[in-house]
Amino acid sequence: MNTVESAIRARKRQFQVRDAMAERDRALIALRQSEERLRLAAETAHIGTWERDLDAGNLQCSDSCKANFGRKPDDPFTFEDFQNAIHPEDCAAVTAALGAAIRERVPQRAEYRVFWPDGSLHWIVASGRILFNANGLPTTLVGVVLDVTERHIAMDTLLRTEKLAAVGRLSSSIAHEINNLLECVTNLLYLARQATPDQDAREYLAVAERELRRVADITSQTLRFHKQQSAPRAILASELFDDCLSIRQDRLSNAGIIVERRLKITRPVLCFEGEIRQVLNNLVGNAIDAMGAKGGRMLLRARESTDWRTGRSGLLLTVADTGSGIDGPNLRRIFEAFFTTKGIAGTGLGLWVSQEIVERHSGRLGVRSRTEASSGTVFTLFLPYEAATR
Ligand SMILES: Nc1ncnc2c1ncn2[C@@H]1O[C@H](COP(=O)(O)OP(=O)(O)OP(=O)(O)O)[C@@H](O)[C@H]1O
Ligand SMILES: [Mg+2]
Asked: What GO molecular function terms would the record report (predicted)?
């Protein structure tokens, strides 16, 4: 009897073990399927996953994680590579998020910029948490990352578009408000010029009148430059340079800036004169700003050139300075609207407006700059002889 009972019990245990093993296998299969689904979802959404063993210090990443940092699946990617990729301005925020994840034992989210090996800048949104062992000591750092650069670009573009729309509205109202006043002052200057017998005073008043007319042009035409109406005029490089320098004579001599002019062309260019003056004024103004009170040399050069893309010949103006120069990251942004390094002294619209004007003249605006020991910047402005064709 005992033998039979113990045989039955042993048989039962066998069944229990078999059932438990089958249950474990089912759970394992379900876990693998769930992991696979998660992996697929992460890969499809380009979400990268990573894990860092805090003792050994090694980092394990998914292919998507590497892709978020501009790496191929086979490329090495260590924790040091990750740290080196972070934009210097964002390092402190990332370190603080990691510290908080350990201290507060809850997942931390951070958004930061990283440089890819090709030099491009990307935005990453990351979430990470710490895993602890049975003794409550932190052992592993796990997290997910996602490249959100496109979202940032879209947001920036939206912001810029909104700002530009606001500038458009503002400039229209400025033009409207100021134009009447300018007309009144222009008439008064004319009357004063007629009334005074003093020849010097008459000349000064004539210059003031002319400059005021340009202010009127700037408000009514340039700020609303999509609605340009004035007629084109043939103008010489020498005229453009003369006027540009005459209104800045004081600043040039106060800063001790030596101006060198090299004019090797006498053929005029047909253009919307007010607009081209505005472009040149901004280039000369920027050159003076870049040299600051230290002074330096400014070279203004005019010669004939040919646009290799179109085969059209025209006027090539150069404004070169021995100023501070523009570093790489800034050089990529100087033609953006509202990009300025001059704080409240600049609007950052000068080069943006200039590029628009030059493009509408079928011309080209180029720049080269260096910030090393013999620093300086060279802007070139090419205008085909028949630039005003619209
Ligand atoms: N010759 C130059 N040397 C050094 N930096 C320059 C030079 N020209 C332009 N820059 C840089 O490009 C930026 C943009 O120039 P831009 O003319 O568009 O605006 P701004 O001069 O700052 O403002 P605004 O023209 O409205 O007064 C400047 O703030 C400056 O940082
Ligand atoms: Mg400027």
From this structure: ATP binding; phosphorelay sensor kinase activity
For residue 291, how far is its CA from the centre of ligand 1 (angstroms)? 12
Determine contact, residues 383/269, Cβ cutoff 8 Å: yes
Q: From the CA of 197, how far away is ligand 1's center (Å)?
A: 42
Q: Which ligand is nearest to the CA of 340?
A: 1
The model's pLDDT over 97-112, given as tens digits with 9 standing for 90+, comes to: 888 888 888 888 889 9
Distance 341 CA to ligand 2 centre (A): 10
E-strand stretches of the chain:
48-53, 59-61, 108-115, 121-132, 138-147, 233-235, 257-263, 269-271, 296-306, 313-321, 364-370, 376-384
Residue 338: other Cβ atoms inside 10 A: 15
Mutate to test the pocket of ligand 1, among 286, 358, 377 (most ligand atoms within 8 A of CB): 286
Query: What's the CATH number of domain 231-390, 3.30.565.10, 3.90.120.10, 3.40.50.2300, 3.20.20.80?
Result: 3.30.565.10
Tell me the per-residue pLDDT of 228-245, one tens digit each, with 9 for 90 and over. Answer: 446 888 999 999 998 788
